[in-house]
Every structure is written in structure tokens, then in C-alpha cells.
Design goal:
This protein has about 100 residues and is an all-alpha fold. The chain has two domains: about 50 residues; about 50 residues. The protein is built from three helices and no strands. The chain is flat and about 70 Å long. The mean pLDDT is about 80.
């Protein structure tokens, strides 16, 4: 491949990566600001991507395992629901003042 072709492909690759990363970075900021100002249109559905954002290295490892072994997804979802329920109960108990340590 000639050096011009490599340069062109590099420019295209960097441009696409910049556009994608910029979109992923700026979209939540812009949507939050529009919601705050009350200027977000109600007739357009904007999907929230919050559930896909890993919060720890363990989340990243789990997502990789699920991608490699899709049959593990149901088990992971059940574990997350149980974890969320347990955390919710602990939080509710703390608010009610009946927390058990």
C-alpha cells in the first residue's frame, strides 16, 4: 500500500475515532444541561446509556466474560438484581434507623 493510502486511512480512522469519542463524551453533558434548563424536547426519545457504564474494573471483567460467554448473562442479571435489592434494603434500613451492622 502506498504512503498516500496509509495517510488517508490514518486520517479517516482518527476522524472516526474522534467523532465517536466526542459523541460519547459530550452527549450526556449536553442532555443534562438541556434537561436542567428545561429546553429538552419531549417529542424526541433520547436513550439513556447509564446502565452500560462500568463503575469498576470488576464490571469491565464481567462485561468481557458475558461478551465471550453469552450464556452467563442470565446469571449476571440475577446477581445484579439480588445485589440491588440487598443494597436497597440496607439503604432503607439506614434511613428508617433500623440498620443492622
Amino acid at each position: 500500500m502506498s504512503s498516500r493510502a496509509v495517510s488517508a486511512l490514518t486520517i479517516v480512522g482518527v476522524s472516526v475515532a474522534s467523532w465517536y469519542c466526542g459523541l460519547k463524551f459530550w452527549k450526556p453533558i449536553i442532555v443534562a444541561k438541556l434537561k436542567e434548563e428545561g429546553n429538552l424536547r419531549d417529542d424526541i426519545d433520547i436513550p439513556e446509556d447509564d446502565n452500560n457504564i462500568p463503575t469498576s474494573i470488576q464490571d469491565i471483567k464481567t462485561q468481557i466474560k458475558i461478551a465471550l460467554h453469552p450464556e452467563l448473562k442470565d446469571k449476571y442479571v440475577q446477581e445484579q438484581e439480588l445485589k440491588n435489592t440487598t443494597e436497597f434494603e440496607k439503604l432503607r434500613d439506614q434511613i428508617d434507623g433500623t440498620a443492622k451492622d
